[in-house]
Every structure is written in structure tokens, then in C-alpha cells.
Amino acid sequence: MKPVFAIGVCIGVLTSAGAVQGAQFTRLGDLDGGAVSSSANAVSADGKVTVGASDSGLSTGSGQYQLTEPFRWTLPGGMKSLGSINGTAFTGYASGVSTDGSVIVGSDLSRIEEGDGIFDAFRWTAADGKQLLGPIPTLEQHTLQYVHDVSADGQIIVGRAEDPFGSFLESAKAFRWTEATGMQSLDPSSFAATAAYAISSDGQVIAGTRQEASLYFGAAIWTEKDGWKSLGLPQNGNSSATAASADGKVIAGSYTGSSSLKTAFRWTPQGGAVLLTNPASGEVSDATAVSADGSRVVGHLITANQGRQAFLWDQVNGVRRVAHILAAAGVDDLADWAWTSATDISPDGSIIVGQGLNPDGNLEGWIADLSTGSTSVLLDIKPGDAKNSIDPDSRGKLKSAILTSAGFDASTIDVAGVEFGPGAAEPDWYRLDDVDEDGDWDLTLRFETRAVSLACGDSAATMTGMTFDGMQIVGTDSINTVGCR
């Protein structure tokens, strides 16, 4: 089936909300010496290892090269440099980390030749330090090696290589490295420019961009079996795939169409690409990472009145600013930061890393841990009643449904822990049925209306609960109180 392309914000049709309780925000600081500057690029599964780049005052460069060096930040040890290659101090960055945090990948400007910087791809472990990945056969002149991602086990590395004497359009080539094969071009027989930006957990699917016949760049995925395959975005603008779920079946990236505004998208084989923000409103957005199951996407959103801000997208809530999520949990640390962006998200979607201008005006990396919070779910009060009209003093029953969505299965809810409204009413009956007729099981519950303890004038009601594995859930829907005097 040919993928479809739709413009709009991909959100649930019902209102749902829930404050994240116990969220944490951590500033990463920077390496000693040099200017105050750091950026966080990737995070391990448990959030205890974050990697990126920082200015230590020891890095050197030439012309346009930013003076930073790769770092490894750990929860107990703070930020430490990954060291230099052959005892020299040049500029570089760490761009990816394995699930367990033991393997770090990135690029170093290791030397200057005839006035041009030579960027070498590296792989770091505590035992071996930095190890260069070496040249790409048949592409020895492509000495600018930019690493973008690594597989979950740290055994497969992807990125792009460029000829320093050519432009991206003329020379960019996607590469893949494994210990068995070394560096390999992913499109050695074609003159088309390519780049690999992300890789699935098992390393079988690589996401990136490939030059189309129209000379535009199109978002694409690469597999050993099929090579490069377009995601089907319109060819009236450039697009790139920059993030992949664990199985490679959910891809995120950006598309620049006729509006000339970059817009984040999320792609699935069934639904094609769907824009996460609306360029018609003047918004600019970019997606940088997705959770393992593809249900959460992070990136940055630029608006005229709020500048650039890190965002988190999910199907229930749509695009939310990370600063707003933290503020709702009583954590206002990110509120005074400017031009923030989210660069990575942990596999379970609970930890986000990024960077921005801190209150002192310096670039600094940060970690937002949402793992102790509640998961928002879709709540439909009085299914079939568009107005959700409720008489608070009614002696009757009130039915409501928690809906299954792409990121949540309503059948996993422990009904014994469900509470509804200010009165924390408990259900007296429930069943699993397909309330919204979308082919999956939703949970319908019934309550004594008076026990819910709604008041005249209330405009919304909230239901809380817990799944069988202990995850807290919260859902809110609008209501219209009637029969009030």
C-alpha cells in the first residue's frame, strides 16, 4: 500500500492530561576550563550515562570548527572527557551510546591537512579508549566522517562521510561499521548523495536521507535486503529520517515542503508520514529521537512568540513542551532557559536529554527524568454523548471508558485501583469492549453518579488508576453539568 501523507497535528480526539509527579531536572554542567558550554546528544537506557560535547579549553580547531571535545556524564561521577587520540587535543563530539552505556561513538577532528580538518569516526569503551573506525574502501577521499548513531549493543555504527573539497550534495555518503566488516558505504554504486542518521536497536534498519531523481533529498530507510527505500514523502521539498524505533517500524524526521518551513513527522508502514505540527501556523519543528516502541517523539519546536523549545509528542497529548511538563509537576528549572532542544529519549520514553541557553546565557546540557510520573490515557466520559452532560445530584449511574491507544493498552488496567472524580468513586461494574470501534479493547466502567462528587459548574473530571505492573495512569475529559439551581 502506498504511504499516505497528511498535514495536521497527530493527537487524540479527546482531552487528556495528567501532572507528572516526582519529575526531576538535572543540569550537566561542563568540562573544566574554556568557555562554559556543553550539549547532550544521547542517553543510555537507565539515564545514568549521557554523552555529548563540551568546551574544556584543551580543544583546538581551525576556522569554522567548533572547539569542543567528547564527554561521558554519569550519575555518580559527573562529566568526564573521553580523552584525545594519540595525545593530541582537537575538537570533536560524542553522538551515540549503547543501551547499557558501555560503548560511546562520535567523531574527532584529529588532524589538519593542507588547511582542511580531518574528522575521524571513533568507538570508545572504558577498556580500549577511543578506537578509530578507519577509512571507507573506495571512498578514501571522504575524510570527513560524521557519526550519528549506534545499535543497542554498540556493535553497529552509522553516519555519513564527505569529501572536504565537495559539498554535501556532491559527496555525502552513508556508511555502516561493524567489527567484522569495518567501514562500508551503504550505496557504493550510486552517484546519489546519502546520509545515515539513525539505526534500529538490532541494527537491521537504518534511517536517513537519499538524493532523489528530482535532486531533492527524500527520507528513506536502508536494509540489507532492499537497500534504500523511500518513505514516500512528497518530492516537492527535502525530507530526512533522523530517528528509528527499536524494530525500525516507526520513523521520525523532518520535511520541508512548499511552505519552506521544516516540520517534524512520524512515519509508520500503515499510516505513512504524518506531520506533528502545522507549518500553516508558522511553526518550525524537527524530530530527533523516538522511544523504543515509537509511541513518543522528541525534538524542538520554534514559534514566533516562544522561540525554540524542546518538545515531547505522544498520541494522547500531541506536542507538549518539556518545560511545561516539568512545570506541571512543580519543577520549574527549565522555565528560565531559552532556545532549548531535545536530542534523545530513553527506550522506555521516560528520560529526555537536550540542551539550551541556561539562565546565565550559556549553552548547557540537561536531563529531564519523567519516569516517576503518571501516564496520560484517553478518557471518554459518557461514551456517545458529545456534550458529556451530567447532573451531579443524579441518583443514577455514570459510565465512562478508558480507551486503548497506540501507546497504551486499556486491558492492562487493574480495575481494583480505579478512582473517579473528587469523591474518588470506585466502579461497581466494568467490561472490556470496543467503545470507539477501532478494533481494540477499551475498558468501560460504571459509577454511582453521586459518589463521583461532581459540583455544579465543573468543566472536567479526572480518573486515576494503576496497571497490573504498577504504572500509574490518569485521564481527564470535559463535562457539562446540568440540573443545577
Summarize the structure.
The protein is mainly beta and 485 residues long. The chain has three helices and 39 strands.
* Bulk shape: elongated
Number of strands: 39
Mean pLDDT: 86
- Structural class of the helices, strands and pairings? mainly beta
| Portion in strands | over 45%
Largest beta-sheet characterization: 5 strands, mixed
CA radius of gyration:
24 Å
Provide a count of the helices.
3
Descriptors:
485 residues; elongated
What does this structure look like?
There is one protein chain. The protein has 485 residues and is mainly β. It has three helices and 39 strands. The strands form ten sheets. It has a five-stranded mixed β-sheet with strand order 1-22-21-20-19, with no helix packed on it. Strands 2-29-28-27 form a four-stranded antiparallel β-sheet, with no helix packed on it. The longest helix has 7 residues, at 322-328. The protein is elongated, with a radius of gyration of 24 Å. The relative contact order is 0.12. Mean pLDDT is 86; it is low at 1-21 and 60-65.
Give the arrangement of secondary structure elements:
Elements: E1 5-6, E2 24-27, E3 38-43, E4 49-54, E5 69-74, E6 78-81, E7 92-97, E8 104-113, E9 116-125, E10 129-132, E11 144-150, E12 156-162, H1 168-171, E13 173-178, E14 182-185, E15 194-199, E16 206-211, E17 217-223, E18 227-230, E19 238-244, E20 251-256, E21 262-268, E22 272-275, E23 284-290, E24 296-303, E25 307-314, E26 318-321, H2 322-328, E27 338-345, E28 351-357, E29 363-369, E30 375-376, E31 378-381, E32 389-390, E33 397-403, E34 419-420, E35 429-433, E36 442-448, H3 449-452, E37 460-466, E38 472-478, E39 480-481
Parallel strand pairs: 1-22, 30-38, 32-39
Antiparallel strand pairs: 2-29, 3-4, 4-5, 5-6, 7-8, 8-9, 9-10, 11-12, 12-13, 13-14, 15-16, 16-17, 17-18, 19-20, 20-21, 21-22, 23-24, 24-25, 25-26, 27-28, 28-29, 31-33, 33-36, 34-37, 35-36, 37-38
